[in-house]
Amino acid sequence: MPQRHSKNNNDLAFFTYEEKRKLGYGTQRERLGRDSIKPFDACCLCLKPLVDPLCCQKGHVFCKECILECLLAQKKDIKRKLAAHAAQQKQEKEEEEEKLMSQKARELDAFDQQNHGAVPQYSDRSQVRDKNGFHGANSVKVTSYEEEALRNMKAFWLPSATPDAPVKVAAPSIDTICPEGKEKLKLKSLFPICFTEESNEQKNKSKALEISYICPSCKVTLTNTLSLVAMSTCGHVFCKKCSDKFLAADKVCLVCNKGCKERNLVCLAKGGTGFAGHGNHLEATEFKHLGSGTGLGLWKPATKS
Hints:
Blueprint: H1 17-22, E1 26-31, E2 53-55, E3 61-63, H2 64-115, H3 136-152, E4 191-192, E5 196-197, E6 213-214, E7 228-231, E8 237-239, H4 240-250, E9 265-267, E10 283-290, E11 297-304
Antiparallel strand pairs: 1-10, 2-3, 2-4, 5-6, 7-8, 7-9, 10-11
């Protein structure tokens, strides 16, 4: 009888290496394709073609409506956090004042007991004492306090009686941030940009309905493979080669002849957003771990490495 090899042996109580490999066990890597990369003329927030584009100083491009809604939502959130922080500070101040008042009351009681401890003080006329030598009304009062404490005592084993931990709100930052670059962003730091559309004579018949943009200097069609540079003074967009060759040297825009400096040249960020791959790490990984003896695995979604 021929000997069974690991590739054909399927009656074992555990998975062999060949079976794990066929089931996709381990880490699998795949390079993201064109559909996973954001186009250069798409908004970083809505991922749609740009409408009235605005660019930040780090090169992230947004639609005007999208970035205004984002900044407005951030300001509303900051206002809400500031109100919560102010309410918390007010509550802490009241608790501190109440604590000081209770401490002063305890000090006064201690002083009173120290100076009048030899003389018994009774509040009723019966002058009844219990077996411990204390006044009956006082013992009843203490007992009622104990019963109330037992009745209100929190139970860690009951979800309904579990004590609540105090949640402290930290002082929020009052600065709005860029949703893509996570740096401080103000509305006045945004500047509009404009792409040069390709003329009808240069368009192909197959792409007649698509809007394509070109570099106004070298007339090369702009794609994701090119590095783009925008001028913060006038907003015109050039390719990186023309920018280094002409703009950086002449300090003048080639379209409108408006002067510029080196700090006015902003490199547009290319690639993706939080929903797509960007930068040099365009590799998605997927990990699958097989459960013991079940044939089912714990699967983690693909993430950018």
